[in-house]
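Assemble and predict.
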Amino acid sequence: MKKEITFKIGGQQGEGIDSTGEVLAVTLMQQGFEIASYKHFSSRIKGGHTYYHIRASHDKTHYWGDTTDILIALDQESYDHNISSMTPGGFVLMEGAEEKVEQKDGCTVIHVNFSKMAQDLGNKIIRNMVALGSAVYLMGLHYEIFKPLVEKKFLRKGQALVDLNINALKAGYEHIQKLDVKPFQVARPEPKNHALLAGNEAFAFGAIAAGCRFLSAYPITPASEIMEYMKANLPKVGGVAVQAEDELAGILMAIGAGFAGVRAMTSTSGPGLSLKTEAIGLAGMSETPVVIVNSQRGGPGTGLPTKYEQGDLNTMIYAGHGDIPRIVIAPSSVEECIQMAPLAFNLAERYQCPVIVAIDLILSLNKQTCADFNLANLEPIDRGKLLSDEELAKLQEFNFKRYRLTDDGISPRSMPGQPWGVHTANSNEHSETGHITEVPEIREAMMNKRMGKLKNFKMKGYEFVGGEERPVRTLFVGFGSTRGVLEEVVRDLKAEGEDVGLAIIKVIHPFQKEGLEELAKQAERIVVVENNWSGQMSGLLAKELQVGDKIETIRKFDGNPFTKADVMKQYQQLTKEVV
Amino acid sequence: MATMKDYKGDTATWCPGCGHFSVMAGIQRACIAMGLEPHEVAVVTGIGCSGKVSEYMRCYGFHTLHGRSLPVAQAVKLANRGLKVIAAGGDGDGYGIGAGHFTHACRRNVDITYVVMDNQIYGLTKGQTSPTSKQGFVSKTSPEGAGEREVKPLELALGSGASFVAQAFAGDIKKLSELIQKGMEHEGFALINVFSPCVTYNNTYNYFKQGVLVDLDQLEGYDPSDLAKAYATVAEHQGLVQGIVYKNDRPAYHTYLAGYPEEPIAFRSLEPDKAVLEELWQEFK
């Protein structure tokens, strides 16, 4: 019995590939499978090859896998594009008029006229469901597993629609059952109480749980779902989401809401982040909390709007004129997108500075299973030095010292509307009361105060993957969505007897050396795996850990994520060079 | 009851005679007339001489970036509906570098008041041609006369959907304060474009003092609820009017927001409603 199955459906954009993949992914999740998925698509609404890849496993995974056991190819292009990644002995369900079964390219290719079958059932729009019915037969599962989801999705539109879908699944299932093919036998996992979601909605959900009550943003791939989620759901908790007129307003409104005392965020991708640069400086200078989610895509300029890259690292750390305190954190799984949302808002309010959450297209858009949500497991809300009306009244300051010089550089804050808190927040250099000044001594004191806020910033900055943390001969380093593929690379190399471990960097700035420095020092080789041309993470490690001579970089910048084979191939080349 | 003393902030460093003194006084008088305390008012400004209103006036203030007062101000209001929010800036700030935000603020119709100190010049950078400088205007950046036709703020506001459009002159502080107050009382986005002469680089006091502005209150049969009439009148007088140009009571932005709470969001508890979170989580299962 197999404990895992991989599946892919390919066709033209606009053919319901996404929703079909989704139906299967959710259903398998409901059956207790752990899911990792990957959507391939391009920057157009209709037409162009697209596919949805699902890996369903008994074990937790963050990677969708290199190979496909069962492929639904709705057109020849889907066949041609995907046949090379098939598991030997896998199945291809090929849409076509002629019905036959053939052995081709190492697979069993089953030609089925799904369109006609759908039409015979009364509606050609259920073609993909017929194909799904066939696919689950080939997994050794029963079409009845779709019932809960089909009912949840369609019951409010009437029993007839539920029946139509179930009949479609059944027809596809029975059609293959009649043929002389031996399906895979996938063992049913233990039932699990978990959920399936993508990084964008995960962070948005986490933000709501963390008390975020304001979002302003501008539509941009691959971050738009964050705004869409907030538009749909913030009103349920008395919050507001605004679609701004541009990227500038997107962040400026969030800063305005933050100044007013509301936990606020904006979401964007590289081009938007570039436009937001000046306002990030405003947040730093005026000491206004704001959370910026940046889902990286292929740059520069418009770059690859629907493709993936990790090329904004330097921009997130350095963008802007002058020096400001800022924090950059990077979740590496969908689960962490939820977990790190409260952290982001707490840090923004505790340090009164911009917090950038670095995610990427792969993490943003692809669904993974997540352990069941438990509010008690989230970091509790910490608003930092926010003064109450009583505390402000005690101070009796006609002009409240919003930028009071303190030992830790963090000044107590008031919210507009509070008596005794009246002040001007300022993007110009300012005095303790917030008024413009060019007095050199005050300027120096204020720069030192702002930059000093993060001087003692300390938190665990990475996660060691691959057994218990200990020094290893070869230390792999990655961040964000490469976690999935790297976990498996390290697992496989360990199985081959290599002494390897993986550090996933979670706090990018201020860089957290503790622990990592030791691992880096003791490793003979540091292999950084990242998706950009210049090796931005490698550069950061070289600078922060002074281990430049040990760093080797595995890069990919063609717009697509690493496969395990990609990493292994480059790693073996590196290994050869060393020998 | 707050007085002028309560609203006095940092010492103003505008050139003596600058129109902005009157504009700030107009805002302060309007606040006092409305019985507002300084902590109930937020003035959000852009950059330029005009931007310094948030320094020189005592109330909650945010001195932001060049051209960026409007997005910040709109969010301050949405975050705390209990505040009276005024955005302020100059013609370069609002109709040049921030023009995109201006048109969208007009159509979004958040309940804020936008006071523009229009002096048809860049003053703080020492005298360059501005978006409202007349075509042909000569300055260091247009030595042969400005080639671009000037921005017409009133028509731009009308065309962008502003629900309250008024114009005033800094030399008539009584009328100016009244118009600002009316703008603040209007539930929706209110533009008060104020001719506020720059005594150093573009001194237009004498020009405006000759009575070139047509007072719309005195104009027989003028009806500020008539959009076509507003356009025609503004065009007919080349924008040289004062008073309420246009006003309509279309619902403000927040009335379209589902679930928008009665009490200011800023003062609500952040603790999440467990039932709502559970409902949201179920959608992922």
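The mean pLDDT of chain B is 97.
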